[in-house]
């Protein structure tokens, strides 16, 4: 097992990609902390029923105080925090003409600020341990601009890409690696509102000619969390069926 004895915090893990990351890490022996604004208890319960080590934390990642308290409680309970996956995120649809200031601020608050709060909270523990792996779930939109979302979504993911590289540079001396996974067109609730025509259009543009599965994103996150990627930091790994090759 690749993550034996490790403690991993995964945000937005009540469902979708985050839940699959939690399940994949738990199967590899990690104690997984499932953070979500709703559904964390139920998700953790389903893992505990399969005899995995899972801790639910109900909070909104835009609440910095709640984030700090939760990270402190996990560190006190487990003694170490080895992995952080910043996965929680929201999307907005439409073009700039439809996009309100409130939507802009809300998407930036969750996708960028929430990510920053968690990084800031765990880094002191990782520095003390002189080890850690931070993985940010970004998007193809952060590299090539929005395809299916409002322009704030790609902007927020672009900010996460830059944060990933900045932290990778600043934290390398403490043995902390910081990487990202950039998915596209994964079967979750986030892509469930597409019309059939939109879906076909999206699939047509993907060389592998299909949607991706949450498990396929989770495998990429596992690789970046594990020692198999020990010389990789500042990387933004595509999981996109070949839509963007960079
Ligand atoms: N599904 C895709 O096609 C796709 C593609 C590219 C990137 N992504 C990214 O992958 C990540 C996961 O997406 P998903 O498709 O699983 O979405 P999802 O909507 O199925 O799940 C997102 C989870 O995050 C939680 N969440 C949202 N805001 C939160 C907040 N403020 N505080 C706490 N929890 C919060 C939700 O409750 C939910 O459980 C997101 O960052 C998303 O941008 C998804």
UniProtKB/TrEMBL annotation:
GO molecular function, one term: 3-oxoacyl-[acyl-carrier-protein] reductase (NADPH) activity
Domain of life: Bacteria
All residue ranges annotated as the Ketoreductase domain in the record: 6-189
Keyword Oxidoreductase set for record: yes
Coiled-coil residue spans: none
Family matches, as PROSITE patterns: ADH_SHORT (PS00061)
Entry EC no(s): 1.1.1.100
Keywords, in A-Z order: Oxidoreductase
InterPro entries: KR_dom, NAD(P)-bd_dom_sf, Sc_DH/Rdtase_CS, SDR_fam
Family to which the UniProt record says this protein belongs: Belongs to the short-chain dehydrogenases/reductases (SDR) family.
Name listed for the protein in its UniProt record: 3-oxoacyl-(Acyl-carrier-protein) reductase FabG
Gene (name only): fabG
């Amino acid at each position: 097992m690749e993550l034996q004895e490790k403690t991993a915090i995964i945000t937005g893990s009540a469902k979708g990609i985050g839940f699959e990351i939690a399940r994949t890490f738990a199967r590899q022996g990690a104690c997984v902390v499932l953070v979500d604004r709703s559904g964390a208890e139920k998700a953790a319960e389903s893992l505990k029923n399969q005899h995995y080590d899972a801790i639910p934390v109900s909070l909104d990642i835009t609440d910095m105080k709640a984030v700090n308290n939760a990270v402190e409680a996990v560190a006190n309970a487990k003694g170490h925090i080895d992995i952080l996956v910043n996965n929680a995120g929201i999307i907005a649809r439409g073009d700039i003409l439809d996009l309100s200031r409130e939507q802009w601020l809300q998407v930036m608050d969750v996708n960028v600020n929430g990510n920053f709060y968690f990084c800031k909270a765990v880094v002191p523990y990782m520095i003390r341990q002189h080890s850690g792996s931070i993985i940010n779930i970004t998007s193809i939109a952060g590299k090539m601009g929005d395809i299916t979302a409002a322009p704030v979504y790609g902007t927020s993911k672009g900010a996460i890409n830059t944060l990933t590289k900045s932290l990778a540079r600043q934290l390398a001396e403490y043995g902390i690696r910081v990487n990202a996974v950039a998915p596209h067109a994964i079967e979750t609730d986030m892509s469930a509102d597409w019309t059939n025509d939109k879906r076909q259009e999206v699939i047509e543009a993907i060389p592998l000619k299909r949607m991706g599965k949450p498990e396929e994103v989770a495998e990429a996150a596992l690789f970046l969390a594990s020692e198999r990627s020990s010389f990789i930091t500042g990387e933004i790994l595509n999981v996109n069926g070949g839509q963007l090759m960079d």
